[in-house]
Design brief:
337 residues; Immunoglobulin-like; five-stranded mixed sheet; four-stranded antiparallel sheet; 7% helix; 40% strand; disordered N terminus
Length: 337
């Protein structure tokens, strides 16, 4: 929950006091023992005291207050009002004596107050209110986990990108940069798109086979502050291997090998046989080979196939993650007698 601040702890070497404070908050709010035999005392909890702002910037804030000590205590309600103290809204309940607030406007004044409630839902009066402004100060951290996968699917070439979502709540979008030059500097000349998602399909070019394309992304917050760019990631698009045997609509005696012509680079190939055009896989085999521009024979050792029945097969290639095919051939039909 405490998003940017955990990032702050791990990436800022000047934060030991803040670390100790957060740890103390967690330990103070954990381990409260509840009595086995509950007796209603008919009294509401005491009003929470010492409400204070611990941290407030970049549209986020951490608040804390002193812990209630009643044996029938249950939790706290946090109320917020924006730009005045007239229109209060319940934003959360928590058993802890701290709360992290996000998605605040940079230039608004927020007022916060807290009440306590017990196991019978009796509620205390409100604490004093405190005010805060959460200005835009820090740029987002660099996005993490960027991956890119070349695709040659259904006669369309593209690159699929994915990355992990930033922990900051004020990130507005991600800028995506592409180049054919390794170690390129992201700027307006190679900016290709912006997205608020954590994935993107780049199909904006007629991409060349076997050519590496390099990508980097930058996170941008609602105030326009930009993160440092990611390290570059790259992939290439592979053509569909040439079919040697069996050709589409093959209808002849049972055969022992699929044969294809390998690509210009060492590649992982996978052949899949299925019972219809959409699903029903009955056999597959994967081969990782350094063989290039040559004939590759793949033993067809399915346990059993029916004669005089249509089957469908295709070839898939991979360059990276085997859940992300690079090139996918059309389906080829065959039957054996």
């Amino acid at each position: 929950m405490i998003r940017k601040y955990f990032s702050f702890l791990f990436f800022n070497r000047n934060a030991p006091a803040f670390i100790l404070f957060l740890c103390s908050l967690f330990f103070m709010s954990c381990g409260r023992e509840q009595p086995i035999d509950f007796v209603d005392d008919s009294l509401p909890p005491a009003v929470p005291t010492n409400l204070r702002i611990i941290f407030s910037e970049d549209g986020e804030a951490l608040i804390a207050w002193d812990t209630n000590s009643e044996y029938d205590f249950q939790g706290y309600k946090i109320f917020l009002s924006k730009n005045d103290t007239l229109n209060w809204f319940l934003i959360a309940t928590t058993p802890n004596n701290y709360y992290f607030i996000d998605s605040l406007d940079y230039d608004s004044i927020y007022y916060i107050r807290v009440s306590a409630f017990d196991r019978t839902e009796r509620e205390s009066k409100f604490s004093i209110s405190v005010s805060l402004i959460s200005p835009n100060i820090h740029a987002p951290i660099t996005p993490r986990g960027l991956e890119v996968f070349g695709r040659n699917w259904l006669n369309e070439k593209s690159f699929f990108l994915r990355w992990r979502k930033n922990i900051e709540s004020d990130v507005k979008h991600y800028q995506i940069f592409r180049s054919t030059i390794e170690n390129f500097i992201p700027d307006s000349s190679n900016l290709i798109a912006s997205t608020s998602l954590t994935s993107f399909i780049d199909s904006s070019l007629d991409f060349e086979n076997y050519k590496y394309y390099f990508y980097r992304i930058v996170a941008v917050d609602k105030g326009g502050l930009r993160s440092l760019p990611t390290n570059q990631v790259a992939d290439k698009i592979l053509p569909i291997p040439e079919i040697i045997f069996p050709q589409n609509n093959y209808n002849d005696k049972y055969f022992r090998y699929f044969r294809i012509r390998t690509l210009n680079v060492p590649t992982t190939y996978k052949i899949i046989v299925q019972t219809n055009e959409f699903f029903g896989e009955i056999w597959s085999k994967e081969i990782n080979t350094d063989l290039t521009n040559d004939t590759l024979s793949i033993l067809f050792d399915a346990d059993f196939i029916y004669p005089a029945r249509d089957y469908f097969w295709r070839i898939i290639t991979y360059t990276k993650d085997e859940t992300q095919p690079n090139s996918i051939s059309p389906l080829f039909k065959f039957r054996v007698n």
